[in-house]
Sequence to fold (191 residues):
Amino acid sequence: MLNLFTLRRLSWGSDTGGQEKVELTAAELESLRSELADLEEKEAHLKAQLQHIDEVLRSACHSGYLQIRTRWTALPGEPPPIDDTEVDDWLPRFVVLHGACIFLYFLSTDISPQDSTLLSDILEVGRLPCFKRENDDIQHAFYILTRLGYRYECSSNSMIQVDSWLTALQSYSKLESDKSVRNGSIEMQHD
Fold:
């Protein structure tokens, strides 16, 4: 077991039986105990993260990584937003559709989401035109417009993943498919 620890500060000695023994000072022993306690705490934290991820993924309606950027719609009387279509500010986020919410995490291993949106706040979802990124990957995209004025633009290089998200949002958000509007978007029906 002591061979696992490669601490240079430990003094090694030999006894008459040919077995090696380690001579530790009280401070070195306390330091080792502290290191072991820190490792046990880190292990417990990692286990909690794994249990959380497992719970989220088992109970989620839909989840996966998407490239996301957030825009705001202009309020009445405000000038239209600046055309920033050339700005590459897409960030990877782990997105989870769970219950009545969409949660956005930095990573799938995060315990707390970075952002969330209630499905009841969604006014409209729809497709966006495909575009190319710097690495020449074609990105398929869609948007989610909320009543708070947020517009989440989501993309993936997989058209199947985008279709799957649109289907999930439509089915879990009580979308009314006969209320189609231009650009393939669908308006939400709220009770």
